[in-house]
Amino acid sequence: MVYQATQAIYDALKAHDLECGIEARDEFSAVHVGINTEKASFEVRFISRSEENDVALRVFNLLKFPEDRIESMLIAVNRCNFRFRFMCFCVDTRNNSIDVSYDFTAATDDIGEAAYELLMRSAGIIDDCYPELMKEISG
Fold this sequence. Notes:
By secondary structure, the protein is an alpha+beta fold.
């Protein structure tokens, strides 16, 4: 099932000439869009789990790092989170990776345009933090 927020986000991204796709499962629907910035390439997912504006922006596996870099990655991620408080950079210790998340408020009037705006902002934020994260990986 494709939830209404998923369809609205898909329609808005297509209206802005972005290539994207929809994934529909029993428990969620999602819009996938690939982003290429000056410093990074990654996939953004807008995940909906109900007919409400229940939308989560997620970037999984933005960066992978060796296990011996976990402590320094936690410090680097905390610095990014301090600078950009509304987006959350997370260290996934099971996969030794960095994920990024943002949860939309359910009271969002135009979820499609809000998702487009956050997509653009997230690209800039990730571009700002990417060199610092890469520096920690390389030691």
